[in-house]
């Protein structure tokens, strides 16, 4: 059993591309749950970071783009491995026709240029299973985004309709819709990497499901049993719709009319009618069911305390929200996130990626409470033009 299956969906996890500001031909691919901290490690501002970036002639590094929205740590590592190893990743090699005129590169890391990395990224985002994940690409460097746009105009194949491209940082682009503008963070330090933004949503779900006698599925209208069933809650602030996981998933998939899709991307809530992202609901569900018990108990005690003091809102509204500190949110994970991967981890991952179903991770023993979850990868490859 993969240890990811016993933890909540991460608050944030991304793959990223670094570029040396002193030697722009030097590029680096990695993954992390905390880009700002990871970039500081690469630049020697704090301990950690892969040894391959510990060279003063290449520092400082800049993070030029991120790929966000991975449903698990393993998913991000799978994507990272494929991006680092384009000659060995079947998602990329399958894109080369048999009569491809250009000779295939030899040796690991031979596709080193920015153009090559972006071309491989474009291919991965179109390939199964990555094309079915709720990913988004965020650009922080204007010239890299311009290269991406030129690439997208000439390559064959279109990116999935649901995939978002966010023009951020110093990129100059056309104004985004209101929802897109809200996604801009200006720099890596502005990325939301904790569960803080989930707190109101999580509190609402816990409050609604505590009074489960009145909860019915918004799809099949059958009474819900939160303690014995997987129940999802609409993410819209003013909606109290609750549903069986399978009922809502089936409804979303039928509306999407994509026979090959197994997991929905989004759908219209049966209660409020507004579009809700499936990944956000799954993140809340796993956080509610798998999050740190102490954090959940504290949240419930705070809620009970508020109610006893008469601050609970009228029936049908959730109780007032007690803000928790970032440290309290860290308890939901219950594990450190600054430990690097063993450098031999790719051997087992490569076997997994060569299997017929990339989404099925290799079998691992169930971890004890003393085990740690490994967050950052130290096996990233540094690429330098000769």
From TrEMBL:
<feature type="region of interest" description="Disordered">
    <location>
        <begin position="90"/>
        <end position="112"/>
    </location>
</feature>
<keyword id="KW-0479">Metal-binding</keyword>
<comment type="subunit">
    <text>Forms a heterodimer with SLX4.</text>
</comment>
<keyword id="KW-0539">Nucleus</keyword>
<keyword id="KW-0234">DNA repair</keyword>
<keyword id="KW-0227">DNA damage</keyword>
<dbReference type="InterPro" id="IPR048749">
    <property type="entry name" value="SLX1_C"/>
</dbReference>
<keyword id="KW-0255">Endonuclease</keyword>
<dbReference type="GO" id="GO:0008270">
    <property type="term" value="F:zinc ion binding"/>
</dbReference>
<dbReference type="Pfam" id="PF21202">
    <property type="entry name" value="SLX1_C"/>
</dbReference>
<comment type="function">
    <text>Catalytic subunit of the SLX1-SLX4 structure-specific endonuclease that resolves DNA secondary structures generated during DNA repair and recombination. Has endonuclease activity towards branched DNA substrates, introducing single-strand cuts in duplex DNA close to junctions with ss-DNA.</text>
</comment>
<keyword id="KW-0233">DNA recombination</keyword>
<feature type="region of interest" description="Disordered">
    <location>
        <begin position="291"/>
        <end position="320"/>
    </location>
</feature>
<dbReference type="GO" id="GO:0017108">
    <property type="term" value="F:5'-flap endonuclease activity"/>
</dbReference>
<feature type="compositionally biased region" description="Polar residues">
    <location>
        <begin position="305"/>
        <end position="318"/>
    </location>
</feature>
<dbReference type="InterPro" id="IPR027520">
    <property type="entry name" value="Slx1"/>
</dbReference>
<dbReference type="InterPro" id="IPR013083">
    <property type="entry name" value="Znf_RING/FYVE/PHD"/>
</dbReference>
<dbReference type="GO" id="GO:0000724">
    <property type="term" value="P:double-strand break repair via homologous recombination"/>
</dbReference>
<keyword id="KW-0863">Zinc-finger</keyword>
<dbReference type="InterPro" id="IPR050381">
    <property type="entry name" value="SLX1_endonuclease"/>
</dbReference>
<keyword id="KW-0862">Zinc</keyword>
<dbReference type="InterPro" id="IPR035901">
    <property type="entry name" value="GIY-YIG_endonuc_sf"/>
</dbReference>
<dbReference type="InterPro" id="IPR000305">
    <property type="entry name" value="GIY-YIG_endonuc"/>
</dbReference>
<feature type="domain" description="GIY-YIG">
    <location>
        <begin position="11"/>
        <end position="93"/>
    </location>
</feature>
<feature type="region of interest" description="Disordered">
    <location>
        <begin position="37"/>
        <end position="58"/>
    </location>
</feature>
<comment type="similarity">
    <text>Belongs to the SLX1 family.</text>
</comment>
<dbReference type="GO" id="GO:0033557">
    <property type="term" value="C:Slx1-Slx4 complex"/>
</dbReference>
<dbReference type="GO" id="GO:0008821">
    <property type="term" value="F:crossover junction DNA endonuclease activity"/>
</dbReference>
<dbReference type="Pfam" id="PF01541">
    <property type="entry name" value="GIY-YIG"/>
</dbReference>
<keyword id="KW-0540">Nuclease</keyword>
<keyword id="KW-0378">Hydrolase</keyword>
<protein>
    <recommendedName>
        <fullName>GIY-YIG domain-containing protein</fullName>
    </recommendedName>
</protein>
